[in-house]
Design a protein that fits this description.
alpha+beta, Aminopeptidase, Alpha-Beta Plaits, 2 domains, six-stranded mixed sheet, four-stranded antiparallel sheet, 35% helix, globular, binds zinc ion
Length: 457
């Protein structure tokens, strides 16, 4: 393995230009999943990707139609006995490029300036897909693969993956694996390799409050009916205490406690109070005082009011008692919370706290489970060692505050964990104008994938 590892790394170093050319070709497809007018472009992108997988010698390459955009699949098997099977996940769709006038070069004409490649999708995530495939090519051209590989590239990540769970469930047999490698991920900085081992889930609600049957004159009726906007504000106020703890009964019941060792690992992260003050512009931080800011955004759940609607909001004056008010409420969930359970907790909370002067309705809009992988599992250790080989230092371990639904879907349906292994930098301007890929980090990433796959053998 050691000999092949070196040969594959040499192959990567001598083929950088070719990999970059392949990536540029991939980036010229405007694969904007949300836009109906790009449907043909989506199909052309899927065809190009499938052809590329075939050119690498993959078996069972297929473009699977869904009720939305197709999934591209392919696989490679090794002769090594007992080798694990890794399912590589990626998405070939991108966000719309608007506003176009803020791009320094056109979003679908990939352009290198200094050491960055600018294009929509360069980082998120066509660059990551070609990065993994470059490492695979290097291993294939210098010997046998260290592991079995399956590739599943969807075209709907940027619109919430509405058909992916169905696809995975229909092709459970084909997708069977020991672990999933999710390349739609990043590191903390070009000199700060990091591994995300936990993601928060999500539960999204709308709370509707109805007071009187219609809006009323506040002079004629003020003082005899409960104002819907006020009642909503009062209900919202029952959901936290003054220190920021969530006061919904049962909300924390499934939260996995942090042990001292994990807290120590999280303390290594260079994100203290000053960091969050600077990045938020808030006059002071807020939240559960017994947890650090890093713990609060990664390892603790939240309940946020995302918006409040109600009453008269136009310029000027109108003395009205609104009959209706509503709030959009989202909860970020941590292992082992479950969105459905949280919905029941919030419903019971409202049953207890809503006054008889109003009617209310709680709508469950969407949910996604949180995810966590054991930091000491062989899958994470192999990545950590790969990063150490390239960066010469141990990576940071972090919990991500955001939500990646596919990770929970893969866990639920296939029963396997996902290793988040991508090399997007924080200043890549994802979803924004001038999205870019830092090429030195990309090349390091490709070599890290070579090490990673060898370490898994
Ligand atoms: Zn992405």
């Amino acid at each position: 393995m050691a000999v092949q590892r070196e040969a594959a790394l040499t192959y990567v170093r001598s083929h950088r230009e070719a990999f970059l050319d392949t990536l540029k070709t991939f980036l010229r497809f405007p694969s904007i999943s949300t836009s109906e007018q790009h449907r043909a472009d989506m199909e052309a992108t899927a065809r190009w990707l499938a052809d590329y997988l075939r050119s690498l010698g993959m078996a069972r390459v297929n473009i699977y139609p869904t009720d939305g955009h197709p999934v591209v699949y392919g696989e490679l098997t090794t002769d090594r006995a007992g080798a694990p099977t890794v399912l590589v996940y990626g998405h070939y769709d991108v966000q719309p490029p608007d506003p176009l006038d803020l791009w320094a070069s056109p979003p679908f004409e990939p352009t290198v300036r200094e050491d960055r490649l600018y294009a929509r999708g360069a980082a998120d995530m066509k660059g990551q897909i070609i990065g993994v495939l470059a490492a695979v090519e290097a291993l294939l051209r210098t010997g046998d693969l260290p592991v079995n590989l399956k590739f599943m590239f969807e075209g709907e990540e940027e619109i919430g993956s509405p058909h992916l769970a169905g696809f995975i469930a229909r092709h459970k047999e084909m997708l069977q694996c020991d672990v999933s490698l999710n390349a739609d991920a990043g590191i903390m900085g070009e000199d700060a390799p990091s591994i995300t081992y936990a993601l928060r889930g999500l539960a999204y609600f709308e709370l509707h409050v109805q007071g009187p049957a219609q809006d009323l004159h506040s002079g004629v009726y003020g003082g005899v009916v409960h104002n819907a906007a006020q009642a909503l504000a009062e209900l919202i106020a029952t959901m936290h205490d003054a220190e920021g703890h969530i006061t919904v009964d049962g909300f924390y019941d499934q939260v996995r406690p942090l042990d001292e060792e994990e807290r120590a690992a999280l303390r290594r992260l260079p994100m203290d109070e000053a960091f969050y003050l600077e990045h938020t512009g808030a006059p002071a931080l807020w939240g559960e005082p017994e947890y650090t800011p890093v713990e609060r955004v990664g390892a603790r759940p939240t309940l946020e009011i995302n918006g409040i609607i109600g009453g008269f909001t136009d310029p000027g004056v109108k003395t009205v008692i609104p009959s209706h008010a509503s709030a959009k409420i989202s909860c970020r969930l941590v292992p082992d919370q479950d969105p459905e359970t949280i919905y029941q907790c919030l419903r019971r909370h409202l049953e207890t706290h809503a006054p008889p002067t109003i009617r209310w309705e709680l709508k469950y809009i969407v949910g996604a489970k949180p995810a966590i992988i054991d930091r000491k599992s062989r899958w994470v250790r192999a990545l950590s060692q790969a990063m150490e080989s390239i960066w010469g230092k141990e990576p940071f371990y972090k919990r991500e505050g955001g939500t990646v639904p596919v990770v929970a879907q893969v866990k639920d349906i296939l029963g396997v964990d996902s290793v988040m292994a991508g090399f997007i930098l924080p200043d890549a301007d994802l979803h924004a104008p001038n999205e870019n890929l830092h090429l030195p980090t990309w090349y390091r990433g490709i070599e890290t994938y070579v090490h990673y796959l060898c370490n898994l053998a």
